[in-house]
Amino acid sequence: MCCMCSYGYLYSTLLTVGFINDSEKVRKQGRIFISNYLSFTMPVESLFKEVEAPQQKNYKEIIFPRVLSPNPNGLPSSSPTLPLLTDAIKESKPWLESLLHQSGALLFRGFPLTTASDFNNVVEAFGFDELPYVGGAAPRTNVVGRVFTANESPPDQKIPFHHEMAQVPEYPSKLFFFCEVEPGTGGETPIVLSHIVYERMKEKHPEFVEKLEEHGLIYIRVLGEEDDPSSPIGRGWKSTFLTKDKSVAEERAAKLGMKLEWTEDGVKTIMGPIPAIKLDKTRERKIWFNSMVAAYTGWEDKRNDPVKAVTFGDGKPLPAHIIYDCLRILDEESVAIPWQKGDVLLIDNLAVLHSRRPFNPPRRILASLCK
């Protein structure tokens, strides 16, 4: 029986025997039971083996992140092949998604991936729809298929914690990262669970969080015409809106709820008010879904002042001491596993914030965004 059929069979069986029912009151319990059941019983041991990493964190029942490597006992030869991996992903997708839902991030390590094309095959094996990169700030270059470079800003610059494209209404639900070239030193991609950040901020700064929930945030960014690779937010307006036509850019900005104010050599974008705290409906918990710290501490270049890059939704400035306290909390709760060549990191963008530490070259991390 295939994985998807097993899921449907299990659910219908539990309904029949009365263990769960389809009422709104107990639907959550049924989903949780099935998710936990699948995570322990799906027959994927033929290829995937869960291993430990010293950097992992354990929050009650959440192991963050989960790390999967090849299981030598289930391999037909001495090492896995790329076709074997992609077939296993397709067959095991419900189980992998249940792990992702529980943990928020999956690291695949030790599999035979060496090129951008290999990575593209893995992304396509998951079958998630692609999300066009419209409205994002990072300079990126398409490599092959659905694969882009990660943020191309200079290696000495830190990229602060953020949910991908949290500053626009249409953001990816999942992110893939791939290590094509290991960093010389540094260059980790720290990740942190968003609901943990929310809980700690709510406990320490309740009035600030209440104001965020009431007013949201406004993001302001000035874009040049062309990309500026020296800036972590250096994506020009032509790349941001995937057009060279100002009228088309205005149409696409309007669909995002973004206002444009054209200047002599670029455009000022105003996004918001947009929520800074969201409800993760699938997990029924609040999340710290914003780019507040990233904007306030990192949106800096010759066109942009980071302190002016983000405000409360009513236009009032944010308190610096709370922003930097939030940054401290993010750092404390984060996990940073050093990259190894061939690593694939799958992130649930609703559950997890990510960042980038400075590094000494070489380093080449590729990315793919999914709806």
Describe how the helices and strands are arranged.
Blueprint: H1 3-17, H2 24-41, E1 48-51, E2 57-59, E3 62-64, E4 66-70, H3 82-91, H4 93-103, E5 105-108, H5 116-126, E6 142-144, E7 147-149, E8 159-162, E9 174-181, E10 185-186, E11 191-193, H6 194-204, H7 206-215, E12 217-224, H8 237-240, H9 246-256, E13 258-262, E14 266-274, E15 278-280, E16 285-287, H10 292-298, E17 310-312, H11 320-333, E18 344-348, E19 352-356, E20 359-360, E21 364-370
Parallel strand pairs: 4-5
Antiparallel strand pairs: 1-4, 2-3, 5-18, 6-7, 7-21, 8-19, 9-18, 9-21, 10-20, 11-19, 12-14, 12-17, 13-14, 15-16
Question: How does this structure look, described?
Answer:
The chain is α+β, with helices and mostly antiparallel strands. It has a domain at 131-371: Clavaminate synthase-like (Double-stranded beta-helix). The protein contains eleven helices and 21 strands. The strands form six sheets. Strands 1-4-5-18-9-21-7-6 form an eight-stranded mixed sheet, covered by helices on one side. Helix 2 (24-41) packs across helix 4 and helix 3 packs parallel to helix 5. The longest helix is centred in the N-terminal third of the chain and has 18 residues, at 24-41. It is globular. It comes from Coffea arabica. It holds the Pfam family TauD.
